[in-house]
Amino acid sequence: MEDYETKRRAESKNALEKIKNGLATKVRILVPADACPVCRAIEGAYDFDDVPDIPPEGCSCPNGCKAFYAPVLDRFGP
Ligand SMILES: [Zn+2]
């Protein structure tokens, strides 16, 4: 699974860069319900400075990590 994980890590880094360069103020990690406990534990919204890697250290998702980054947009209203 080493290759898959390396690839996933590069892909998610890319996605994170795009989110940082967009309109988002924070980033949210979304995790499928069948993900491993390590992934479930990192689900939530983060400041750009302390976003965990995807896949996280110690991930044991049976079919590979499916967690992903999503932008948090809170620039509504004045
Ligand atoms: Zn996992």
Describe this protein's structure.
With 78 residues, this protein is α+β, with helices and mostly antiparallel strands. It has one domain. Strands 2-1-3 form a three-stranded antiparallel β-sheet, with helices on one face. 17% of the residues are buried. The structure holds zinc ion. Zinc ion binds next to helix 2.
Largest sheet: number of strands, sense, barrel closure: 3 strands, antiparallel
Number of helices: 2
Query: Helix fraction?
Result: 25-40%
Order of helices and strands: HEHEE
Give the averaged pLDDT, no decimals: 92
Poorly predicted runs are: none
Secondary-structure map:
Elements: H1 2-21, E1 26-30, H2 37-42, E2 44-46, E3 68-72
Residues 35-36, 38-39, 55, 59-61, 65 line the site of zinc ion.
Quick structural gist:
This protein has 78 residues and is of the alpha+beta class.
Features:
3 strands; alpha+beta; 2 helices; binds zinc ion; three-stranded antiparallel beta sheet; 17% strand; 78 residues
